[in-house]
Amino acid sequence: MLVATAVSVERDAVARAFGALSLESDETALGVVGRAHPFRPSGTTAHGGSGATAHGGSGATAHGGIDVIAAGVGPALAAASTASALTAAVLQGDPYGLVVSAGIGGGFQPEASVGSLVVADEIVAADLGAETDDGFVSVTELGFGTVRHHPPEDLVRLVGNAVGARTGAVLTVSTVTGTAARARALRERHPTALAEAMEGFGVAEAAAAHGVPVLEVRAISNPVGPRDRAAWRIPDALAALTEGFGKIVPVLEGWNRHDQ
């Protein structure tokens, strides 16, 4: 399993769910991704049971392995880093069976309160398209591809139940919402949206290119709307991410896409 976060504090928060930690700081550990560093929790194998990361060492077993990477900020870098990690695993003959986009994000109020967890049932590129006189038109409506990825329904349900999280659309944006007007516009276009972040769709695109299922989990650090740094609760969100992954990982490790 590959968990792709944006930045190191998110990566570290996820990895804390496994207990004692051991950070691999070698920037070339992934071989082809300069800014995505594998993070291997002590006592938890990194992509298998060999005791070495799949991207920097030997092969591994098919189950139980977890790599956590800081893939970078924004959908483009997240996609490139995730794709490189997936390709490296394939070349070593030990591909990932699941990709999880994880981190903190903004929550649409009142459904996604600060400090809560959200699990995506849709991963949506919210601003990929064109502005017209009649409003926003998505890339899909323009006929140039998809703006939505759907995680496995059963996995979304299992993970949501495990942590008591709401499930709904998580929007991927290239520009974080900073006004009430934009927050309203996004909710009008995406009425099931619970959260916004900047990487999920990029991670999902990379996973889809490799035929690997994807999941997105977000801990809410701030309301979506006017940019108010005083209202941000980043430490609380990171703590929620750690606590949540402690409950999520057993579900993810026990899930088998081929049983569905």
Based on the model shown, name its key terms:
Nucleoside_phosphorylase_sf; 7 helices; two-stranded antiparallel ribbon; 31% helix; Futalosine hydrolase; Rossmann fold; 260 residues; hydrolase activity; single chain; five-stranded mixed β-barrel; alpha/beta; hydrolase
Describe it for me?
Residues 20-64 have low confidence and may be disordered. The chain has a single domain (2-259), classed as 3-Layer(aba) Sandwich (Rossmann fold). α1 (8-15) crosses α7 (234-254), α2 (75-91) runs parallel beside α6 and α4 (153-163) crosses α7. The protein has helices spanning 8-15, 75-91, 139-142, 153-163, 180-189, 200-209, 234-254, and strands at residues 2-5, 21-23, 38-41, 67-70, 99-107, 117-125, 129-132, 135-138, 148-149, 166-172, 193-197, 214-223. The longest helix is centred in the C-terminal third of the chain and has 21 residues, at 234-254. It has a five-stranded mixed beta barrel with strand order 5-11-10-6-12, surrounded by four helices. It has a two-stranded antiparallel ribbon with strand order 7-8. The chain has seven helices and twelve strands. It catalyses: futalosine + H2O = dehypoxanthine futalosine + hypoxanthine.
What's this, in brief?
With 260 residues, this protein is α/β, with parallel strands linked by helices. It has 7 helices and 12 strands.
